[in-house]
Amino acid sequence: MTTRSVTGSRPRVRWTYRAVGGFALAVVALTACSSGDSDDSSKKSSSGSGSSSENLSGTVTVFAAASLKESFTALGKTFEKEHPGTKVSFNFGGSDALAASITSGAPADVFAAASPKTMKTVTDAKDAKGTPATFVRNQLEIATLQGNPKKIKTLKDLTRSGLKVALCAKEVPCGSAAQKALTAAKLKLTPVSYEQDVKGALTKVQLKEVDASVVYKTDVKAAGGKVAGVEFPESKQAINDYPIAPLKNAPNAEAATAFIDLVKSAQGQKVLGQAGFLKP
Amino acid sequence: MSGSKGRRWGTPRLRAGTPRLRAGVPLPLLLPALAGLVFLVLPLVALLVRAPWRSLPDQLTSVAVWQALRLSLITATAATAVALVLGVPLAWLLARARFPGRRLLRALVTLPLVLPPVVGGVALLLALGRNGIVGRWLDSAFGVTLPFTTAGVVVAEAFVAMPFLVISVEGTLRAADPRYEEAATTLGASRFTAFRRVTLPMVAPGVAAGAVLAWARALGEFGATITFAGNFPGRTQTMPLSVYLALQSDPAAAIALSLVLLAVSIAVLAGLRDRWMAAS
Questions:
Q1: Which GO terms describe its molecular function (chain A) (predicted)?
Q2: A131 at interface of B, judged by CB pairs closer than 8 A
Q3: Is residue A125 located within the same domain as residue A167?
Q4: What is the C-alpha to C-alpha distance for residues A97 and A121, in angstroms, rounded to an integer?
């Protein structure tokens, strides 16, 4: 049966509405998959032509683990001040996702990973230049609600029934480190969620959706009092080395080397130390 | 689902016997059209070309994949059921009832269509999370917490998928002739009886199409799910989540999982083909 309406002006309005609705439906429905965190594709940098380290220019693109966010952002500003005309652009995320995008050809100059294993992905693919250097180490800590209302003192306390705990997924460094610590403590812990990166695990505590999560010391520090940190002895068994390396297909190789030098310098180490990282 | 001939449901239809295009297509139109087509089809072709066909049977019979697929199918179906129960009456209200602020209400209802899913997830956390506006009260009164549960996945998916159904059903209702209902009421049926016995059967194809679209959208939901329900295998780890995590450790598995979702999407499209390519 047909559905021609008999009223005067309504059909046109309705058609437009239906067109818009239908179009939206078609577009959105067929692209149904919505990506969670957009993959910040880094900008192509204009390669600096300066050969000496004094006149660097252009953009240096740094792919770095999520846990380095605060300290590297600060170091990036320092770098831009020291070398006018340069710009440091960062892509922070789970080390695995970053390694995956580097091996599939993302144009980056520097990779700083939160574990040797993720760096190995890149070196195995022959995408790194030289041998990666460990520039800091990071230790795990329990993050819990402000004022520690659940009275969490040890790693074992996390296994109490009725306690909601978030861990990092085993695929990302903070997750494998947490598993190592749990194994060392001979504990079995079933979390409510395996988060995609360490910041996700921390955020769930900040939002009070979970009672605790196992993150890095640096993350607890970065949260600045919004969460309480609880140290635990088993974390010594699972200290993460952070390797950094310039990349082979770096569009801006000189600036990459200069940035890595800054990270390794006394000044860089001081900034990283203030963020809670341990010396290599 | 057979398309009932001639019934419209909210998309502008291609009229059968479209104007003859063979009478020369202008080049400025043809080239971008072909480029657009390649742009849309190429990624899917790449997925098929690079699929690990040889190891595919092993990949797809692994426990983890089935767990994720099963959970996805169950939650998407449950979310569609929720959307039907709440969405059809809402669509009727928007299409048939006259009250001030109807346009604003429609805008609010369709907002989740255009809202980035991650934002939806955050909003859900703030509303229904353990510390949320309503969630806090749910927790204290009934001991119900939605995040990190399968129910939470259903909530997240329903939130994102329901607008599809509402728009689709509302479009059908507007296109359907209200005089049939009026006739029924003059013959002594109550408004609800008229809705149940006259309106609903009339718009059934539109409801079905909306339900399929909502189901497909729920199946592909990623952002709101991982934000609100977290990621735990067997409980909240749906297919898109496992694709994302597999991509970081085992790309072959991720491609295999993507193929499954692609197959499901094609099946949905095939089921809806009468609606997209209505030939009267």
A1: metal ion binding; molybdate ion binding
A2: no
A3: no
A4: 11
Q: Which of A12, A20, A34 to mutate to test the interface with B (most CBs of B within 10 A)?
A: A34
A226 and A113 within one domain = no
How many Cβ pairs within 8 Å bridge chains A and B? 135
A192 vs B18: CA distance, rounded Å: 55
Q: Give the chain A residue nearest B173 (alpha carbons).
A: A3
The total domain count for chain A is 2
**Chain A residues within 8 A of B247 when measuring between CB atoms:** 97, 100
Q: State the residue range of the domain holding A101.
A: 59-137+241-275
Chain A nearest-CA distance from B19, in A, is: 19
Amino acid making up residue B278? A
CB A216 within 8 A of CB A278: no
Q: What is the pTM of this model?
A: 0.74
Contacts of B174 (CB under 8 A, 6+ apart): A14, A17, A18, B95
Tell me the pLDDT tens digit for each residue of B105-124. Answer: 999 998 998 899 999 999 99
The answer to the question of whether A198 is labelled as a binding residue is yes
- A167 and A216, same domain (yes or no): yes
Q: B250 CA to chain A: closest CA distance, Å?
A: 10
